[in-house]
Amino acid sequence: MPLSPSSTVHVIGAGVAGLSAAVRACEAGARVIVHEAAGQAGGRCRSFHDDVLGAEIDNGNHLLLSGNRSAMRFLATVGGTDALLVMPTAAIPFFDLETGERWTVRPNAGPLAWWIFAPGRRVAGSRAAHYLAALRLARAGDASVADLFGRQTPTYRRFWEPLAVAVLNTAAAEGAARLLWPVMTETIGRGAAASRPCIARDGLSKAFVDPALAWLAARGAELRFNDRLRAIRIEDGRAAALAFGGGETALGPDERVVLAVTPPVAAALLPGLTVPDDFRPIVNLHYKLAAPADLPGGLPLLGLIGGTAQWLFVRGRILSVTISAGEREVDQPAETLTETVWRDIAKALAPGAGPPPPCRVVKEKRATFAQTPAQLARRPKAGAGPRNLVLAGDWTDTGLPATIEGAIRSGEIAVEALRNP
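-> structure tokens emitted (421 positions)
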């Protein structure tokens, strides 16, 4: 039975996948109830006040591109667009910590990628032929990024490898190359208009979470925090009841469920469900500077090549770096990481700088599933599930990597599956 104004949709989980599903279900006219086990929404995409720094910081750094259509549509719907800082041009600056070279990747306007033939627009030391290899992504199969592009060209070390690690949160030697194809076709491959970097102006919560919660509340959605789902009773191929802390609630014939939780939780609630079971960490470091910093090129971000971290962001006095696929770093003491990463930052921005300023290290040991070919085979389809229950989350098979864009897209797919069962 498709969604109707008499339908009730229970969204389990208030991360961005759950919020996306809740928004789309509201738009479809359904009554929406969001159940969140924690005391706040956002999941990994949220901000919090840090007492050490005396500032608002993000749980993790996230870079979007203007071609991330699901994220942009979500922000436009809930009124969060103004909280996103969209760079005026499609320019991404890089610094090679080993050689000291700087360059800026600048895709041109339009889908015809003539920028790869312009030395001043592409990676230093690369050739146009290195980028034409991107066409291999369309038929990558189970190849890793390293297998597909090799490791001997400057473009691999300075473009494909850092792109893969940032997008897949998995080492390029094992990351599934085919997941980069939709990234290319939806953003960089469409030219400058779809390739402008975007970051949250004042934090992820103010861009994605707070506006969504306000939008949902204004439309009568119920938001129930500290409301953990304990069990799902399945009868005759459909979800018959949901069990929360207060007991079991039977589901009527016009009630639906969007399960937007982590893979282990989904597997526990739906025995027999195959989900990704190997995960990779992300480590973020947030430094509080004595004064606001200006990065070379005037943009608030910088890609770092050959160091511990891959990306550097500046928002006022807070300088943040991201270490994706940080299996080695996640178990290192915070003091060691603070010193090691600061040396790279100083080399890129201010050689000879003194000791590191106050820093908060945030470690997420299971930030995303390992986006390897073997783990991709364990992704259930977004929108799959019993007749009145659908799955959402960046770990479901949306065709995209496990990113904010993938999470929001999964919520859209889930509600579309409810609308058109």
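The CA atoms of residues 171 and 374 lie 14 Å apart.
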